[in-house]
Amino acid sequence: MRYTISGKHIDVGDALTTHVQSELGETIEKYSQRPTDATVTFSRDAHQFTCDAVVHLSTGLTVQSRAAANEVYAAFEACRERMDKQLRRYKRRLKDHHKDRVEPVVFGEAGSYVLAAEDEDSDQQADSREPIIIAEMESRVPTLSVGDAVMQMELAGAPLLVFRNEKHGGVNVVHRRDDGNVGWIDPRGNG
User: Nearest to residue 175, comparing CAs of 163, 167, 189, 187?
Assistant: First the structure.
């Protein structure tokens, strides 16, 4: 597994790097023998250290977690424990994921745009109903089953996931509802 361990406004020493590689590697190997790369970023905000970890699996799925603590090692351990909890919840499905799939998850390209917030003082936006695009990016849209999409959304800790449905190829969305349940939007419908 390839590791990218870095710090924002802090120096990540050899001891912390070695600790992250051994502990994170052990956690991931319990649930999936095929991780491809991991990115761990440490940052500091006043007295708090934050650890963000993203692990890409060879199946195309991504696991992500974040934690903060007063010590850098404690922040990493809390982050690792959250990732362990997410992986434990989907342990059987992660191990069986490769049996159902001949190929890894297929990703399609999609445009992603950041629109300027509406400003009441702006004369330019008042004259036009079109929002102002301030950034353009490429996004990847996976082709998944609905169950795998829910699993990917939860593993990534995302509030929603846009995906292409394996059954019919249409674009679908799964999202975390305010009541704690998961919502599924399928514009194709049943008829």
Answer: 163
- CB atoms near residue 127 (< 10 Å): 8
- Alpha-carbon span 177 to 132, nearest angstrom: 29
φ/ψ (deg, to 5) at 141: -110, 115
Range of the domain at 24: 2-98
Residue 184 phi, psi (nearest 5): -130, 125
Cα angle 44-6-55, degrees, rounded to a multiple of 5: 105
- pLDDT tens column, 99-113: 555 566 777 778 777
82 and 148 in a common domain: no
pTM: 0.67
| Count of Cβ atoms closer than 10 Å to residue 163 Cβ | 24
Contact, 97 vs 148, CB < 8 A?
yes
In the chain, the percentage of residues whose pLDDT exceeds 90 is 35
Same domain, 57 and 121: no
Q: Could you read off the pLDDT of 26-78 as tens digits, one per residue? A: 888 887 656 678 999 999 988 999 999 999 887 777 889 999 999 999 999 99
Q: How many domains does the chain have?
A: 2
Q: How far is CA 106 from CA 45, 62, 151, in A?
A: 38, 13, 16
Alpha-carbon dihedral 162, 165, 168, 172, rounded to 10 degrees: -30
